[in-house]
Amino acid sequence: MPILQTDNLMMTYRVGKVDVHALRGVNLNVEKGEFVSIMGHSGSGKSTLLHILGGLLKPTGGKVIVDGEDLAAVSDAQRTDIRRRKIGFVFQRFNLFPTLTAEGNLKLAEHVHGTSGNAELRREVLRLLKLENKMKHKPLELSGGEQQRVAIARAVINRPAIILADEPTGNLDSENSEIVLQMLVQLNRDIGQTIVMITHNPEAAEIANRKVLMRDGQIVSN
Ligand SMILES: Nc1ncnc2c1ncn2[C@@H]1O[C@H](COP(=O)(O)OP(=O)(O)O)[C@@H](O)[C@H]1O
Ligand SMILES: [Mg+2]
User: Fold this and answer.
1) 32-48: per-residue pLDDT in tens?
2) Which protein residue's CA is at the shortest distance from atom 20 of ligand 1?
3) What is the CATH number of the domain that holds 172?
């Protein structure tokens, strides 16, 4: 069974008196352990799809099934719970807490997840992301690439089954983009995490096992 599955997914935003049809029947299956990239012009519905896959947003129609649970059918509280247990998000803006060190940001994520943290897993993640020596630094004392690696560490520290990344290299130069992408590849390969990544960068899209192209709220090639 796919770990992520949508069936005729619809999302219509109401803006004043106007309906914006952001998703018009999206059918997507992602198997466990896949690394899928999503490309498409700005406004084609990529972020909306990712937010629905991650339970941040409730669709206006269709089904979204995450690891066997139908997100469209459950309460807001249940959806939040599923998200915390199964999903890690990485955004274009790193969204780290500026007053906390890298370590503090990771501990906060563990706390929100309701775990006291698994020291062995944490060491493995920090080693993979080459962050062992950066744990006492605050975000402003880190480069953009390092900040994004901390954000990725935060997303994977609780070992969610699925990583959803929305333009994770969008704010990085090419050197740091390459480092971050290689680390996502490693996490996918070594920890077996399923990854869905939105990107504008054709080279970034190439590292995925599969490329999905969106246009006007639909998947046009898969
Ligand atoms: N919160 C929102 N309220 C109203 N319209 C929105 C909202 N978010 C996105 N949209 C609209 O939905 C469409 C798809 O947006 P989005 O999913 O962000 O696309 P992409 O990530 O591919 O750029 C766009 O027309 C956008 O303006
Ligand atoms: Mg977007």
Assistant:
1) 999 999 999 999 999 99
2) 43
3) 3.40.50.300
